[in-house]
Write a structure and sequence with these properties.
Blueprint lengths: L18 E5 L18 H14 L3 E4 L8 H11 L4 E6 L6 H14 L5 E4 L5 H5 L7 H20 L4 E4 L4 E5 L12 E4 L3 H10 L2 E5 L3 H17 L7 E10 L3 H20 L15 H12 L2 E2 L3 E2 L1 H5 L8 E4 L1 H14 L3 E4 L4 H26 L5 H4 L3 H11 L4
Parallel strand pairs: 1-2, 1-13, 2-3, 3-4, 4-7, 7-8, 8-9, 9-12, 9-13
Antiparallel strand pairs: 5-6, 10-11, 11-12
Helix pairs in contact: 1-12, 2-3, 3-5, 5-6, 6-7, 11-12
Amino acid sequence: MSAPTFDQTIPQTASPTVEFISLSHLNPSTELNPIPTRGIDLAFFRRYVRSLEDAGFDYTLLPYGSNGADSFVVASAVGQLTERIKPIVALRPNTTFPLVAAQKVATLDQLTEGRAVVHLISGGNDAEQARQGDYLPKDQRYARTSEYIDLLRRAWTEPAPFSHAGEFYRFDDFGPGFAPYGGPIPISIGGQSDAAFQVGGEKADIFSFWAEPLDDVRSEIDRVNGIARAAGRTTLPRIWVTFRPIIAQTDELAWRKAHEYVSRIGATFDHGQFHRRIDRNAPQNVGSQRALQFAEQSELYDRALWTKTAAVTNGTGAATALVGSPETVAAAILDYIDRGASLVSIRGYDTLNDAVDYGRYLLPLVRQELAHREATGQRGSLQATALGNYADEYRQLATAGRA
């Protein structure tokens, strides 16, 4: 199979502003090496968060789960441990009344001098939602999120008290609420169901989904943008796409590393480690269903998108990898930027070491190429020198049943 070729012109869909997100980890336990932990290893957490800032990340996501640490408290800690990184606090609407959430997020924004972002998780798994008393069906959960977004924004901006009687929330004479540090706080939502696209397109500042093949991502972006335009929006949602890069000095070494990783990750999930609850049934959320469908159809897509990591975890969370040298993976990330992504989330399987490596070897390549494009209107040499030939060889071996 021949190496891909590239048009030297810059697509109009490419965003001039590209920023990087990672995820904050509270302890050194990983999918590669699960270790017993009480939850928060403070020395590790401090080191990890500072490594993200040193690496040049712009945001870090503080995840939420029924059996995990409180995302608001952790986000506040991140804000005090860093000077520049924007904490993205994950929030499930069923856990916090919207006016209280507005107060908490605005407080975080004040403490971080305007760095707060909130990511609303409507909930993709009925059993996980029920663990904290939420029994709404999925479509209603997204309808609740829609109402929630409206109330967050009103709580931050209304200059006088107001009342509300909606489908999910009712209150009288609230406000004015506690104000953010500066302008409105960005609101992100994610998902790949019809309801997620509808709410995200109509109301979210940021819309998030997991990595998929390039053509499919382009279709997803077109879809959310079409909904936004139909809703009369003049500013389209920013697109956030998540990857799990596996990099090494060369493509060949990266693929060796990837196969070692997938064996260890599979063993971790088979033994029920790392996550307390491993669901081997068909996943309910559309993102996981799609990840498994792509994995069943092919292990490798485009330049470097590898689905075997998603297959061995039954589509649990963001698991799809980008495999190759820093040049190959940087070029693959740029392919997604060319399709319209402007927020690129990358987190590794060897969490702390990968964050450091991304800052040394990967982020600078992407930013260098973007700066070259902005200055010249043309692509630089990065993509010409990183065509992923080893990925082509891998495809041939996989087809022959030898990979």
